[in-house]
Amino acid sequence: MIETASLMMVAPELVLTGGSLILLMIAAYAGDRLAGLVGWLSVATLVAAGATLTGLPGHGGDAFDGLYRADAFAAFAKILIYVAAAASIIVAPRFFAPVDGKGTGAVRCEYPILILMACIGMGMMVSAGDMMTLYVGLELNSLAAYVLASFMRQDSRSAEAGLKYFVLGALASGILLYGISLLYGFSGSTSFDGIAAAIDNGLSNGLLFGMVFVLAGLAFKISAVPFHMWTPDVYEGAPTPVTTFFASAPKVAAMGLTIRVAIEALGPGGMAWQQIVIFVALASILFGAVAAIGQTNIKRLLAYSSINNVGFALIGLAAGTPAGVAATMSYMAIYVVMTIGGFVCVLQMRDADGRPVETIASLSGLSQSRKGLAAALAIFMFSLAGIPPLFGFWAKFLVFDAAVAADLLGLAAVGIAASVIGAFYYLKIIKTMYFDAPAPAYASGTPVIENALIAVCATIIVLGYLLNPVLDRASAAAAAALF
Fold first, then answer.
1. Global pTM?
2. Residue 265 contacts residue 186 (beta carbons within 8 Å)
3. Residues 39-82: pLDDT tens digits?
4. Backbone region of residue 305 per phi and psi (left: phi > 0; alpha: psi in -120 to 50; beta: other values)
5. Structural domain that includes position 313
6. Number of structural domains, the chain?
7. Domain presence at residue 145
8. Domain-embedded: residue 46
9. Buried b (16+ CB within 10 A) or exposed e, 289-301
10. H helices of 127-155, where?
């Protein structure tokens, strides 16, 4: 018999499930003429799901015999996921709307509904207390993501992105399943607590191999080196609102899941998984910094930037301490703001005919034709580079401080050195906007919603230190829930 308390704990997922099914019926009967209404109702559904999280402090705990965990860590991650998902829905209509008969395609009702369904899976991911819940949540998210990547069926790049994401995602799922089967075979349990107890009794070779395969499968989901190969192609080929979504919400969910697995399930084998995380972190930082230098497409550059930033976030996890986990969650919160702001700026890159433009060269002289857009994009690039006093600097400082406190001085030193390399390609964009000869001006006239999103994100990045007391308390509470 299902207990009422368990249903209360899964309220966010129930709200999203009910909302997505109702909207799916509306879309089926009304068609795309109500696409705008469905989009705003989807945002309202995300707000309603977020509102149910406020009851977690009184109703938190394990649901369904430990399969699902409703705690401060899950609530923190879900708020970031819902915010990123809502932003990705809000900015989509203008991109998909036809432009003088030559646009990217009609606005479709299915887009916001698919994002809601992906959010159901992501919510299960960050609340997983068992390998079965982990896998079900991961696949729920992935199935919606595969469709979103190839959403523009008439665009060969989008179709290619969806196919690559599907094939490589299936490979990663196989690797993850094999790791789960090894952990189950050698521990006798699929629950995180049962696996942790088995590892605590002695880390056998079977458990070690299972640990490696599970972390490899999760590394694909966060696009960490050496499982990053899908990221640049999918980011470039997918519609820009979808790329905005991929770069923010699923990244938070996958990072949250990786942290929960590492701390709760693999915690007693810290010395083993920490070495893996340290290698993946350093490889992602260095590769992301170097590979982005030669890019000419802004979306591919931001893809390598996301790989680079995942590496920095993993430094906090490598510390394996409450302070390290709190630093990683704070990093992800700041990263979501920078990413949304950066991609909304990319959405405003349109030629005189209103068609999307993605080349970095088209930004030449932007400071003369679109001063506000150039200033906002410069703020996001400086912040991603970790240049003080912007909020992105604080994110990097937190993870480096946690690494030093955990006696990982070498890791912090390499990370600081690599951040200097990574700053080069961010500064190249700023140099292009402010010092290069002007390119043809972008189309004039931008929607209020996009400008408002950019303004909000830029304000948070510039004045974010005022939010530090709130962010620090929330991330510390989220980390404490795992220890």
1. 0.92
2. no
3. 899 999 999 999 988 655 444 678 888 889 888 999 999 999 99
4. alpha
5. 274-482
6. 1
7. no
8. no
9. bbbbeebeebbbb
10. 131-149
